[in-house]
Amino acid sequence: MDQPTLDLLRRTRTRGRQPLSGLSVQQARSFPSWYELLFGPAPELALMRDVRIATADGASLHARLYADDARADSLVVYFHGGGWVLGSVAAFEPCTALLAQRTGAALLSVDYRLAPEHPFPTPVLDAEAALEFAAAHAEQWLGRPLRRLVAMGDSAGATLATVATRRLARRAGARAPDLQVLVYPVTDAGFDTPSYREFAEGHLLGADDMRWFWDHYCPDAARRADPDASPLREPDLSGLPPTLLYTAELDPLRDEGEAYARRLQQAGVDCRMVRCPGVLHSFMAMARVLPLAGQAFDTVCADLRERLA
Length: 309
Known about the structure:
CATH topology: Rossmann fold
Number of helices: 10
Radius of gyration: 18 Å
CATH superfamily: Alpha/Beta hydrolase fold, catalytic domain
Shape: globular
Order of helices and strands: HHHEEEHEHEHEHHEHEH
Low-confidence stretches: none
CATH class: Alpha Beta
């Protein structure tokens, strides 16, 4: 671990930030996110517009559309992290706005409903509805035909992105994403990989934090084996679109993310997997304060821009 990362961890400990396992949901939500603490202000873009997304059960989801290139003909639908319990479009805006600026794509960031008020599978169904809505309205938003639809997310949001992508890819007549971008995804509820044991504590996201998230998202442990909750458990991953998948070296979720990448490759999916060296979970939030995190963020942006070129 490099010195800037060690210094960040030391500052976190001295400021008394408590493990999630010792907090209520309301207490956890009262703390600012890593993006709000570390990322800095969002860039000013040519287009920042709020939209509403209707779901099958009659709910109305908030989302925000970003674009900085008037020629954009691709749309990234982004699902934020936060263990299905925390996070929002507003909290992640510094990152999502910069992604739109750096990649040249339009980006729709989605406020899916959060657990425990809306446990599994509601966030999955919200993600599926958001991708459908985006496909149906993108031409109107962009002023031209949609060339590429991208499902993207980080952490728990990456889980929603890939599960919703699979569900749409197997539904007759649906417009499935042309690409999925998964940044340190949650792919299984096993808690039993070498990276879980190695980084169980002391690396911002710990094993107990992940158990806290799962307990709120899917309190019935037996349901966590459902592939819509743990996509690594899906027996057939064929037919999914090309995939960019990024893991963080110092992350308990590293091994399950890499196992998912291997499963995609074995199923014949074009999957580029990158282990970003020396970085923690949530490295996207640290892109402006830690050099290695900045390099990892640059890699994600460059790869996505290349795929959309």
